[in-house]
Amino acid sequence: MNCHISEAQLGETGFSYTLSLISGKYKMTILYALMEFGVVRFNELQRYIGTISYKTLSSTLKQLEADGLVHREEYPQIPPKVEYSLTGRGRSLVPVLDLMCEWGEQHRR
């Protein structure tokens, strides 16, 4: 069965769904950092990324958490301690991120 582009609906594809979860200026960078470093604290993420504001990092982490890709663990202590890590669903993106890294290494100048 041939499908023509005029009949296709990009919004109904797995590609579009995946893109909706990882698109945004910092989402993939955060996922990559969590993939590389495992459990990471907020300030460590902010230092690693370097160019992200507190507000942007906070809202992006909330989005990733709401989408089930990132786990937030809050410890009841003073000063407060919060750690972030990938969920099982987030870890399932690791092969995709690895392939993107591999492609980038092969094709960057």
TrEMBL record:
Domain HTH hxlR-type: 3-109
InterPro entries in the cross-refs: ArsR-like_HTH, HTH_HxlR, WH-like_DNA-bd_sf, WH_DNA-bd_sf
Gene3D superfamilies the UniProt entry points to: Winged helix-like DNA-binding domain superfamily/Winged helix DNA-binding domain
Keywords, sorted A to Z: DNA-binding, Transcription, Transcription regulation
Name of the protein described by the UniProt record: Helix-turn-helix domain-containing protein
Organism: Thermophilibacter provencensis
Classification lineage: Bacteria, Bacillati, Actinomycetota, Coriobacteriia, Coriobacteriales
